[in-house]
Amino acid sequence: MPQNMCLADLLQVRPGITALVGAGGKTTAMLTLAEELAGRGERVIVTTTTHIFPPDPARYGPGLPPEDEQAIRQRLEQKGLAVVTGPLDERGKCTGLADGQLEQLLEQADCLLVEADGSRRLPCKAPGEREPALPARTGQVIGVLGLSCLGQPLEAACFRVEIAAQRLGVPLDAVLTPELLGRIGAAEWGLAKHTQGRRFSVLLNQKDTCGPDALRRVVETIRAENGAQIVSAALQKHEWNEE
Q1: Which long-range contacts (CB under 8 A, 24 or more apart) does 207-216 make?
Q2: Of 218, 242, 205, 168, which Cα lies nearest the Cα of 29?
Q3: How many CB atoms lie under 10 A from the CB of residue 224?
Q4: Nearest residue to 231 via CA among 14, 39, 25
Q5: Residues facing residue 44 across a β-bridge
Q6: pLDDT digits (tens, 9 = 90+) for 99-119
Q7: For 115-148, how does the pLDDT look when each residue is reduced to its tens digit (9 = 90+)?
Q8: Which DSSP letter does residue 49 get?
Q9: What was the pLDDT predicted at 120?
Q10: In the chain, what are the helix, strand and coil shares in percent, each to the nearest 5?
Q11: What is the pLDDT of residues 145-165, one digit of tens each?
Q12: How many CA atoms lie within 13 A of 141 on its CB side?
């Protein structure tokens, strides 16, 4: 892979809706993709179906309500990138949009990047019964996991730990091994939930926090259970490559 290959090309992000799920770097990945796509002339809208902290307005522009079509259109014409969400909640987070609102946004943009999962800022996540909140027309799902959770107790590093422990068949205080993390990334009850018929990629972030052997074991476990594309990255350092 060329060293300067952008993340959007590596993940083969296409026009339409791309949803990011999991934990350990979803927002960073979403905004990285948004800047890359907008930088090459795509009209990109960043949004959510759950709750996210507002992206830096100085860098990404003010958050716009979905009904303000004129402001969205103007922002896309000027910058190529618009942040469109529901109003802020009591925690200061942007609230999510419904399918009908996303359908309307698709008429204005080439790419919709949607954060469709919550993780309470933990590096690992097992989806609950009603998660992830994928838009109906999602074409691609990018499942994110933070490798910084390796070696930590499951209960300290994983959101929805009870679900993860039950599905993995381990106690809540089990140490997260590369094999356990790989199973979460690959399983249909894990990050691959509801991805049937959709392009699915696993983004292993925070690769700078673990050694090459641990990364290799995570990748091998995912490959043994799922044919998904696997990309490892240190997003904060703008480093990534396909495994």
Answers
A1: 207/147, 207/232, 207/233, 207/234, 207/239, 208/234, 208/237, 208/239, 209/146, 209/147, 209/148, 209/150, 210/147, 210/148, 210/150, 214/147, 214/150, 214/178, 215/147, 215/178, 215/243, 216/178
A2: 205
A3: 11
A4: 25
A5: 81, 111
A6: 999 999 999 999 999 999 988
A7: 999 888 999 999 999 999 999 999 999 999 999 9
A8: S
A9: 87
A10: 35, 25, 40
A11: 999 999 999 999 999 999 999
A12: 26
Task: Determine the angle formed by the axes of helices 178-186 and 212-225, rounding to 10 degrees.
Answer: 40
Q: Is 152 exposed, middle or buried (0-12, 13-18, 19+ CB in 10 A)?
A: middle
Under 8 Å between Cβ of 64 and 72: yes
What angle, 0 to 180 degrees and rounded to 10, lies between the N-to-C axes of helices 161-168 and 178-186?
100
Question: Residues of the chain whose pLDDT is less than 70?
Answer: 1-4
> What gap in Å lies between CA 192 and CA 202, rounded to an integer?
9
Residue length, the chain?
A: 243
| CB distance 102 to 114 below 8 Å | yes
What is the per-residue pLDDT for 1? 42
User: What DSSP state is assigned to residue 54?
Assistant: P
Structure tokens belonging to residue 32: 């990285």
Distance, CA of 124 to CA of 144 (rounded, Å): 8
